[in-house]
Amino acid sequence: GQLEGTSLPLFFGWFLLSPAKEKICCTSMDFLKTLDTLEAFKKHLNDFTQGADKEVDLEQYFKSKGPLHCTTKFCNYGKEDGAKEYAQNPLLLWPADAEKEVEGASSLPLGSRAHVTLGCAEGVEPVQTGLDLLEILAVQQGGQKGELVEEMELGSLSYYGEGRWLLSLREPIRTPACFSSVYG
Ligand code: ACK
Fold first, then answer.
1. Given ligand 1 and candidates 10, 11, 94, which is best to mutate, with the most ligand atoms within 8 Å of its CB?
2. Given the residues 21, 69, 73, 113, the one annotated as active site
3. Which of 35, 25, 1, 18 lies closest to 153, judged by CA?
4. Is the confidence metric ipTM above 0.95 for this complex?
5. Among the options 84, 100, 115, 164, which is catalytic?
6. Nearest CA to ligand 1 atom 4
7. Whose CA is nearest to atom 14 of ligand 1?
8. Ligand 1 centre and the CA of 37: distance in Å?
9. What is the pLDDT along the chain (184 residues), one digit of tens a residue?
């Protein structure tokens, strides 16, 4: 086809633009600051720090890498299933198989994996945030609501067990974005 011999990118996605990008970083830092003070959050801290009983400073704990973006298709330079088909089909934004990687998530609507990774703990790859999101959606689809822990200014904070926290925003955060690809 047309793309024969053309190398495919690491991934395609929407890249967040200024000034919304900076605003989102500030909002997430403020959120972590508040989270750090919640007793209910501290109570469950061991669920994801794996028993490290030292004090955890959340603002240091999560590190962000690279530009803020929402991946639409991870291509891994063509090595990933469906990469070529995705690149050749300009109308298809969300790939058909992105939700299939998590048990119980395969019947979710296309695009359910859409997310912007704001940060990861050391040693955790960014791919994990999308999988975490799918896991929470799968649990919700199974009828579980999570335990409402705190009404915050930003939204409602719920706990789904096993270190899974969900903040449901009161108002969506809107941002301009540019569709592009990364060759890394
Ligand atoms: O935060 P993300 O969506 O998670 O953005 C990065 C981007 O590609 C570059 O690493 C995402 N990513 C990495 N590996 C995969 C994968 N196997 N499937 C889907 N997305 C992935 C990562």
1. 11
2. 69
3. 35
4. yes
5. 115
6. 127
7. 127
8. 31
9. 555 566 999 999 999 999 999 999 999 999 999 999 999 999 998 887 766 656 789 999 999 988 999 999 999 999 999 999 999 998 989 999 999 999 999 999 999 999 999 999 999 999 999 999 999 999 999 999 999 999 999 999 999 999 999 999 999 999 999 999 999 8
Instruction: Name the amino acid, one letter, at 6.
Output: T
Question: What is the Cα–Cα distance from 117 to 183, expressed in whole angstroms?
Answer: 18
Ligand 1 pocket, residue 129 CB under 6 Å: yes
Is residue 86 lining ligand 1, measured as CB closer than 6 Å?
no
**pTM (2 decimals)?**
0.93
Active site residue 44: no
Q: Residue 69 catalytic?
A: yes
